[in-house]
Amino acid sequence: MTEIYIPEGSGFSGQTITQTKLAESDINVLTLYRGAKVIPNPRGDRVLEPGDKLLCFGKLESMRGMVPARTRRKRQPVVQELDTQLLDEHSSGSNA
Question: Considering the entire predicted model, what is its pTM?
Answer without folding.
Answer: 0.64
